[in-house]
Design a protein that fits this description.
Blueprint lengths: L3 H4 L6 H30 L3 H20 L1 H8 L5 H15 L10 H26 L4 H24 L1 H6 L5 H4 L1 H9 L23 H23 L3 H7 L4 H8 L1 H16 L6 H19 L4 H29 L4 H27 L4 H25 L7
């Protein structure tokens, strides 16, 4: 958004951005983590069908995110970026109640895909508002608070799915998108008409090691979402295997979401990790270890522990990836769209691998081995940028 008007626009206050993000994340949580539980409980979906459903949502999100900047710029002839946020919120609100129609499981696919496309365009724009006009400490503080707000909301939205199922109302968790998005729209008057530009004249150039760290993070980020996409459709069955009651399944599944939120809250307040390669190494190690522990867990406590470790690892990777993307990418929608598109590719690849393994008759062990093999292979492209330039601490 490099126009003179954008350059003169001050940063949007953080409070309204956090409120919109928290409320809009209800849709994110239910769409990505809750649909598998709904499909199993209401339509009798097995693993193969759930992998197919998750793959379709991944395609929709990836395509929407990579096209987000083009869509937003084309729409600016008719509506401001702030107006575009309102349109996207209202579209999600209007779509969600359709999930209650008694027309078969295809309605779950349609609602999931349409909400995924709308949110894939919505989030890069929100991220551009968050980072626009902010640098260094101000950006770190705003991004830490933002990460914490939306991650808590995603965890809460998933946690309510199974308890609603006990009341025979599991699909009402999807309908909750309507009031949540409508409430989020009420905060948009506090947004600027368009995101502020990234400040260039503050005498603080981006540290040279940030580009290498961004390149590494952009390998680890989609890999982390491959793992999320792999484990999310499996969770109803993993929880059933260790004897979790129906009412407690999604609250237990949300363990990794809440541990991720705690992790980003600590990173927000801790500081000192910016510009350090060790944070990415730690994140990748915890991600792999937590996933392995969770999928092979013989009991409920072990499964919960694995999910918690997994969430911490993903929280480190996500925090680093979004921070370096918006620092190096100068808060542009293109940078945010690339960030979200990589997430979408991860969401797509994990379920696709599961679908391929399931259709070929492979056992769960083969699927787990495939995901771990992919993670092992990713270490080479992830480490290479860091070896080319030894990172130094950010000034």
């Amino acid at each position: 958004m490099g126009s003179p008007a954008a350059a003169a626009t001050p940063a949007t206050p953080t409070g309204p951005i956090l409120a919109v993000s928290f409320l809009a994340s209800v849709g994110t949580g239910v769409t990505w983590s809750g649909l598998s539980f709904i499909a199993e409980a209401d339509f009798g979906y097995g693993k193969t069908a759930n992998f197919a459903l998750a793959s379709a949502n991944g395609v929709a999100y990836a395509v929407g995110a990579f096209l987000a900047s083009r869509v937003i710029r084309a729409a600016e002839r008719f509506v401001s970026p702030r107006g575009m946020l309102a349109v996207l919120l209202l579209v999600q609100a209007a779509i969600a109640p359709a999930v209650l129609l008694p027309v078969g499981s295809w309605i779950l696919w349609a609602v999931g895909i349409l909400v995924s496309v709308a949110s894939a365009i919505f989030w890069p724009l929100v991220e551009s508002y968050l980072a626009g006009g902010r640098r260094r400490e101000e950006l770190r503080h705003a991004m830490g608070a933002w990460n914490l707000s939306w991650m808590i909301a995603v965890g809460l939205s998933l946690a309510i799915v199974s308890p609603l199922g006990e009341l025979g109302r599991m699909r009402m968790s999807v309908v909750a998108i309507l009031p949540a998005c409508a409430a989020a729209a009420l905060f948009l008057p506090w947004f600027r008409p368009r995101p502020a530009s990234h400040p260039e004249e503050d005498g603080l150039p981006v540290p040279p090691n940030y580009a290498a760290l961004l390149a590494s993070a952009r390998v680890l980020l989609p890999v982390s979402y491959v793992v999320i996409g792999a484990i999310s459709p499996l969770l109803p069955y993993l929880l059933g295997k260790v004897g979790a009651e129906t009412a407690t399944q999604t609250p237990l599944a949300a363990t990794w979401l809440f541990s991720r939120a705690i992790c980003v809250g600590v990173l927000w307040k801790l500081g000192g990790w910016h510009g350090k390669a060790g944070a990415l190494v730690l994140g990748g190690t915890l991600l792999a270890g937590g996933f392995t522990l969770a999928v092979l867990a013989p009991s409920m406590p072990v499964l919960a522990a694995g999910l918690a470790v997994f969430g911490v690892g993903q929280g480190i990777i996500y925090s680093a990836a979004i921070y370096y993307a918006m620092s190096v990418g100068k808060a542009e929608i293109d940078a945010a769209g690339t960030h979200e598109g990589l997430i979408g590719l991860g969401y797509l690849s994990g379920p696709l691998l599961g679908l391929a393994t399931s259709l070929s008759g492979g056992a769960d062990g083969a699927y787990v081995a495939t995901i771990l093999g992919l993670m092992a292979l990713s270490t080479v492209p992830a480490v290479r940028p860091l070896l080319r330039r030894s990172p130094a601490a950010a000034p």
